[in-house]
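User: Sequence in, structure out. Go.
Assistant: Echoing your sequence, followed by the structure tokens.
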Amino acid sequence: METYEDIVARYFSKEEIQSVQNMHSHLIVTLSVTTEKQEKADQLKNELLQLPNTERVSIIFTKQRQNPLFDKWQIKGVKKIIGVASGKGGVGKSTTAVNLALALANLGQKVALFDADIYGPSIPTMLSFENTPPVSYDGKTFEPFENFGIKAMSIGSLIDQNTALIWRGSKACSAIEQLLTQTNWSDVDTMVIDMPPGTGDIQITLAQKLKFDGIAIVSTPQDIALIDAIKGINMFAKMGIKILGLIQNMSYYICPHCNEKAYLFGENGAKNTAAQMGVKFLGDIPIDINVRQNADEGTPIIAKLPDSPTTKAYEEIAQKISNLL
């Protein structure tokens, strides 16, 4: 019986095949070819999808170069890169990324935040540069936005907020590369990247092309979110990226009248999952209406309410992450 590798080898040479990985019925084929061979890759993808126990197939193209040192994207002026990821949408990943970036800046670091959530960019709204195009002094590179003591850039600043990006993975990845590498970041200690939710083509390409110092996974306590969080942990770990730990968002609600905690989505789900997976539990973020209100108003809670319990929770997590870098 033919293996996955045998089938791929019928379409591409040994030199063109970088890896063939099967992750929970998601087959990932990485090829050192350009998208000029897209038609052949599509034929391969269609054949692989016919195989039993294969639910998804991702074909990743990488440009073959003589010097492997240049395979990684070169982001000038950035010392360390961490990703904030989630297995699924709706768990507060972007809000967590923004507040963690501000919390790291409060620790005395020079911080940049890059919005790689290309199909749902929300960083411009949360950092108050929505509908404001970036500045370019030379027509070739962009100047990052600077609000609340951090630098930031997002694809959302280049398009109308109501425009849906109908881009395939390769085009989206190309846009991310251009924006990352053609922004004048200057002197940055830590860059926080708000990753797209899930484990698709963009996440895989970012994992391959960036030298991450670690990934923090955000989840809510409920089982349905944790199932996908586990997939994210497994994917990044399998690609050799350090897992900084698991953040439990929307952990509990504190009643303003009796001050009792209500565990609306279950208690300690992410903490228990972290223990089972052998990764660090970074901390709890409570359900706080101020987080939502201030994000919508473009003033993150850390900037607006620096002494709030929720701000302290973000700062404690940021300190733990900083200690791991």
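User: And one key feature?
Assistant: The longest helix spans residues 223-238.
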